[in-house]
Amino acid sequence: MNIVDFWRIFKRNKFGVGGLIIILIFLIMAIFAPFISPYNPNQTNPNLFLSKPSLNHPFGTNELGEDLLSLDIYGSRISLIVGFAAAAVSVILGLLIGIISGYMGGLIDEVLMRITDFFLVIPTLVLMIIIAAIIGPSLINVIFVIGLLSWPPTARMVRSMVLSIKEWPFIESAKASNAGRLYIMFVHVLPNVIPIVFANATLAIAGAIFSQASLVFLGVGDVTDISWGEILHYAVSSGALSAGDWWYVIPPGTFIVLLILGFVLLGYSFEEILNPRLRRV
Amino acid sequence: MERSLTKYFIKRFIFALITIIAIISLNFYLFRIMPGNPIILLYRSPELSASRIKILTEQFGLNKPLWEQYFIYVYNTLTGNWGISFYYKQPVFNVIIPAMINSLILLIPATFLSIILGIFTGIISAWKRGTRIDFAFLGTALAFYAMPTFWFGAILILLALYIGGIPISGMYTIGAYNSNPISQLIDLLSHLVLPLITLTLVYYGQFTIIMRNSLIDVFTEDYIVTAKAKGADEKWIIKKHAVPNAMLPMVSIIAINFGLVVTGAILTETIFSWPGVGLLIYDSIMARDYPVLQGTFLIVAITVVMANFIADIIYARLDPRIRYQ
Which tens digit of pLDDT belongs to each residue from A230-264? Predict the structure, then answer.
């Protein structure tokens, strides 16, 4: 399926187009945050302790008197950065491990797949919490912790695709013309797995955004960086949630939900398009 | 038990065993390879006196070579000596076990409810494929699937505060003494309501999606076409032919996602202050209580591995093809 065909089918997919629009809105919000947000998000004001939404502060203020609308707008940046960067790390790693495992077979395959199973089975969020707590919670560390622990599903999927691709005739002819293993793996096999991997990357991004928000919410991660998880963390730890201060809690949570939903919808539509059995008639 | 099943059982058992050994080793190296060796971490903790640190150093052989420390660590882990909590100043094992029991009180009903709800909505969605009902059910499932646990919990807390009368935090009413076990149980159940709803709804969505797609896949199989050609009733085909076959992938998905349910439980417990392993993890992060963190990872990981092992065996019993792979 070429890109034009793909776009033609995609255009008619309500879920997919909806997801794409949501993601674009948040991208614009993140890029233009300094121009959109009404205040400097770090500007405190002791007179505005947890004030309700008003005309001056449409989303209210937090316990430091910071404008929550500005914080919520700036928060989109970290979610998107971590989402894309961590997903890139995990997809590249999963792609490499999947291709090597599937194409080489034998002992290498066995060892790599047992390692993959190990990381699939263990509850990764707990491991992320522990590693991030030990190595220190900088943004880069959080990206790598999430990326390095979320590759197994990609690796499994790529491996099963490579297993069938390597039986195709053109691989046979490449072998006959004495092409090296590395050459076949990366020149012949790789381009054939890329489309599906790309489609699944949207789910990896959704997962990474969720992991980052969860880590920061639990107090692991850089709490000085503005992010939606961080805002929620302080909403709970400052007691604003149990006091019923809804304006502190609902917007950042809703933004996380919408952004994750955007990527999940996009991924789901890709799956529907690439798997003809699921395609709506 | 058939021979192929026995062979499969042994294979899965060995994998589970190796996984547990790997988890224990990982746990050991994490806290030693990372910056700040355990002795420094001990000294950094304001809760411990110098003499106490000396005793701990001796007990865990922290002044011995690394390989020797490893064997001491494995021995200690297997015998339930998981170190002393910096914060609670009690053996880690004694801190974790009651929390584990509290977690299971929440986890077990939530898992069952979300699976039942997921299967039910998935069947309806697949049956009404392409209609508005399908769209609504699938949309709801996707929305809950994408919903971060802590946010949904927070919304429920706000709602409960608005309505009033529903406990939003803890497991029992603080300060209330119930001599009567029945009223104590009612108190517990009323505290269970919100966390249980949260965990169930956040996790049922993935089961709906998988059940729906699995059923739609099954609908294209020849035996369904045959049954239709024979003029069988549609409801009967779904009940007798499609659902049992579509259930097979569900079993493995339930097993794989068990780790995710645990993640959800951690977040749910944190937001509702439910005194389980999740809240313990949160408190330990806040108190920099590394021995407890290490212990919670151990117990959570081992529980998930065991649950997976059991699901694997159930799957192999249900689907003989698996055993020959």
Answer: 898 888 888 888 888 888 888 998 899 899 889 98
Reduced to 3 states (helix: H, G, I; strand: E, B; else coil), residue B84 is strand
Structural domains of chain B in order of their starting residue, each with its CATH number: 2-35+82-324 (1.10.3720.10)
Q: Which residues of B touch A256 (CB under 8 A)?
A: 148, 151
Q: Is A172 on the interface with B (CB under 8 A)?
A: no
B301·A130 Cβ contact <8 A: no
In sequence order, which residues have a C-beta less than 8 Å from that of residue A94 and are 6 or more positions away?
A151, A152, A153, A154, A155, A157, A158, A197
A188 CA: distance to closest CA in chain B (Å)? 28
Task: Mark yes or no for CB contact B267/A217 under 8 Å.
Answer: yes
B202 part of contact set with chain A, CB < 8 Å: no
Task: For residue B181, give how far its alpha carbon lies from the nearest alpha carbon of chain A (Å).
Answer: 29
φ and ψ at residue B309, rounded to 5 degrees: -60, -45
* Statement: residue A281 has pLDDT above 50: no
pLDDT value at residue B34:
54
Contact predicate A231/A248, CB 8 Å: yes
The answer for residues whose C-beta is within 8 angstroms of residue B137's C-beta and 6 or more apart is: B121, B124, B125, B128, B208
Q: How many CB atoms lie within 10 A of CB B315?
A: 20
Q: pLDDT at residue B99 above 50?
A: yes
- Calculate what percentage of chain B has a pLDDT beyond 70: 89
CATH number at residue A223: 1.10.3720.10
Give chain B's mean pLDDT.
Answer: 82
Question: Between chain A and chain B, how many beta carbons pairs sit less than 8 Å apart?
Answer: 144
The pTM for the full model equals 0.82
Q: How far apart are CA A64 and CA B119, in angstroms?
A: 46
Q: Do A218 and B270 touch (CB under 8 A)?
A: yes
What's the Cα-to-Cα distance from B217 to each of A230, B240, B246, B300, B325, rounded to whole Å?
Answer: 42, 16, 8, 34, 21
Split into its structural domains, chain A has a count of 1
Instruction: Name the β-bridge partners of A67.
Output: A61
Q: Which of A121, A213, A242 comes nearest B19 by C-beta? A: A121
What's the token pair of residue B200?
A: 């169930």
| Partner residue facing A268 (CB), from B36, B142, B300 | B142
